[in-house]
Design brief:
The protein is mainly β. It is 0% helix and 45% strand. The chain has no helices and three strands. The protein has a three-stranded antiparallel beta sheet with strand order 1-2-3, with no helix packed on it. A hairpin with a 6-residue loop joins β1 and β2.
């Protein structure tokens, strides 16, 4: 079973819902692992957040 895809995040500063700015794949050059990355942005206070989940997570 795959992990639950993260589509929502609340801003830790103002509590407003953060917008998904982009989704992509990142990698760790030290160990070759790949990650599903979701980048969030709060337009109200300009806070950014990233969530990275290993692609082989179950």
């Amino acid at each position: 079973m795959r992990y639950n895809i993260i589509e929502e995040m609340k801003c830790p500063i103002c509590g407003q819902e953060m917008k998904v700015e982009r989704k992509d794949v990142s990698s760790d050059s030290r160990n070759g692992k790949k990650y599903d990355r979701t980048v969030f942005h709060c337009e109200k206070c300009d806070t950014w957040g990233n969530i990275e989940v290993p692609k082989d997570a179950s």
